[in-house]
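Re: [help] complex structure
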Amino acid sequence: MKRNDFIKRLGMSSVIIPVLASCNIKDGPTPITEETSTDTTDSSGSATEDSCTITNTETAGPFPTKNPSSLEHVDIRSDRTGVDLDVEITILNGNDSCSPLEGAIVDIWHCDKDGYYSEYGGTGMQSINFTSVHFLRGRQVTDSNGKVGFTTIFPGWYNGRATHIHVHIYDKNGNSLLVTQIAFPEGSDSAVAVVNAATAYGYTKGMSGYTYNSKDNVFSDGVATELSTISGSLSDGFSLTHSIVVNG
Amino acid sequence: MKGLVKFCYRKIIDRNASSAWDKMVFEDTYKEYFMQAQQFDQLKQYNTFRELLEKEPKADRMHNLVSTAAIGYLRQLNGLIPEVTNTSGKLFLPFSNFRFELLQSHIKDKSQHKVVIYFYSDHMVWLDTIDRFMLLANSNQTEALEASEEVETELLEIVPNLSISSVKHIHSTVTY
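Output below.
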């Protein structure tokens, strides 16, 4: 390359580089800067090379932070509507005279007022929106009294099953201690009967075709240890309390 | 304007995870796998996800159940598909839909845990193809394009694991 040509090209690059640099600030690095530096450093262009280092890309995006499971919510209603229900579960240790078990992980899940579960639809192979992906599923860790609490709605029912809430209890390391279900009291003035007649709250099934605990394939062997206590009203919401004994 | 397209980027996360995000997704989805698998196999008889699926068909819920551990991390991506950049090295492909799949896992051997996340982009306007690059604009620019206004564009190269998952033809009177 002739010296004049080289100077000309250097001159060009000295004009181009600041323009590109200002572009870089706004738009990030471009391959063009790399090509320019190659063109102008074929003799002794180390200084040009140094000032023309490709800016780091930011493909990693925002620095990630440790994030708990999206199940870890007290209020698990998400977009579901219905009669309010507070659930308080106490986990007791059968290996320690039924004293409260602290630090146990408790998962609960149940159907919505129409009997549908979150995430059970179809084959699970459809894409889903990451901003609203599940409802009526929650996870909490028991306190020193062995208690966890959830804010949810009163479950509806579906064909073949009595009203129920699923519970999975783990030790603090995630080892399963018990998979069980919470049963609901029945009777003409029970919360189950009152809520399922509450069309104003969106419950449309009533009790016609309902599977009672005695006919339920899970609870028909008796609900002595699975039956919860429920109090409250439609307008104030209901409260469910239940104790579960595990081998902690 | 050639049409509206949606891209799908397939990202595998396994024991070779190197970035902080990948490692957290790997660790947390493995922990979730370990926990949730016990719902279907309380006696821990089946070591691998394949065995579990074979013996307990209901375990196909595991894909969704385990995805709960990844969702928080997906929300940290600011709505942009990771790793897929324009020719300036910037992330730009907006997404709000994803699909999470367990490929394999093992309750006693974390190194066998392997998941895949499919990121589905929002609609992008495919304006033209230049050499091996696609010239794109956000679909919210469609009206501006129709009005012959100047719009910002992105140039994208189709890289491994990136594909087009859907296309929608646009009737347009605009010529370029």
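Residues 3-27 of chain A form the longest helix (25 residues).
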